[in-house]
Design goal:
With 329 residues, the chain is α/β, with parallel strands linked by helices. It has twelve helices and nine strands. Strand 3, helix 4 and strand 4 form a beta-alpha-beta unit.
Length: 329
């Protein structure tokens, strides 16, 4: 039976078969990225509201591009111009957007759980584009798609996550998704960013260990996920930028401890020379640009399933995507 999705708020509650379905649907939209003409008519006449109450460039542009390539219109609300800065409540702002009759709301907010709260008050699909330190579902999906493309499978991989795991919604979404495929996790970073409670955040039975030593963390790694470190946190004692580079930067010498075919992911934007060296960021094991391309495919699939699927359209296949492309040419 084909899964039906009302919203996409988190990956934690989704079983492995539904996650696989989302990734399989994204494959068709990957193919579309290779076409000279990428504009489809799939969601012509539909509109997507992009409500980013927290600053974002990559995710907002990626969702906007995904909507445009499906033929949908977009309406944008950004943090710097948000009415919340004038005292309006989050719910009032969202209801105002809803009154403009979009077919879907894509929302980023600095508060964990904000998208769940909003979804309870709206009748249109809501997509979580990142909420606080909770989850970033589309990032987790695009990372998984990139891993599956490079490694051939998501099953039983050794995943190393480097950096500020405590504050990372990207790390949580990756653990919730990949843990359902038997992946094992090693979390590495300064002690205050990798506390003991993180060993319990994955799905039941997930193997999660911590180590403060990067050499140990990288042993036999199949995938290395490097997290962006917020600059302001590198000025908080007892850690300095120099200390972080010395102890935790992923460079070419350290990467050699991982498996020879290990791949490197980063959610961006990168602090080159701090959490990752330029030679690794631009090297053959880096999948950073593939992640960006796959992000559009994943977000096209999500929008199609939540908007087109809500209208009763059949799930997309590689063949139907080609037919839709010709219809839009």
């Amino acid at each position: 039976m084909t899964p039906r999705f009302r919203d996409l708020l988190a990956l934690e509650p989704l079983p492995a078969d539904e996650l696989t379905f989302l990734l399989d649907q994204s494959k068709s939209f990957q193919d579309i990225q290779k076409h000279p003409l990428k504009k489809l008519a799939t969601l012509r006449g539909k509109s997507v509201a992009l409500a980013f109450f927290e600053n974002s460039t990559r995710t907002r542009i990626s969702f906007g591009t995904a909507a445009a390539r499906l033929g949908a219109d977009t309406m944008n609300l950004q943090a710097e111009s948000s009415s919340l800065k004038k005292g309006e409540s989050l719910l009032d702002t969202v209801h105002t957007l809803d009154a403009m009759k979009p077919d879907c709301l894509v929302m980023r907010h600095a508060a964990s759980g904000a998208t769940h709260f909003v979804a309870q008050h709206l009748d249109i699909p809501v997509i979580n584009a990142g909420d606080g330190t909770h989850e970033h579902p589309s990032q987790g999906l695009l990372d998984a798609l990139t891993i599956r493309d490079r490694k051939g499978s998501l099953e039983n991989l050794n995943i190393t996550i480097l950096g500020d795991v405590l504050h990372s919604r990207v790390a949580r979404s990756n653990i919730h998704l990949l843990g359902k495929f038997g992946c094992r996790f090693t979390l590495c970073g300064p002690a205050m960013w990798v506390p003991e409670e993180l060993e319990k955040i994955g799905p039941p039975g997930a193997a999660i260990r911590r180590t403060p030593r990067i050499a140990e963390a990288l042993e036999d790694a199949d995938v290395v996920l490097v997290l962006r470190v917020q600059n302001e946190r590198l000025h908080e004692p007892p850690l300095s930028i120099g200390d972080y580079i010395l102890l935790y930067q992923l460079n070419a010498e350290r990467l050699r401890r991982a498996r020879p075919d290990a791949i490197v992911l980063h959610p961006g934007p990168m602090n080159r020379g701090i959490e990752i060296s330029p030679e690794v960021a631009d090297g053959p094991q880096s999948c950073v640009l593939e992640q960006v391309t796959n992000g559009i495919a994943v977000r096209m699939a999500i929008l199609f399933l939540l908007i087109g699927g809500a209208a009763g359209e059949a799930p997309l296949t590689a063949e139907s995507s080609r037919e839709s492309t010709h219809a839009a040419d």
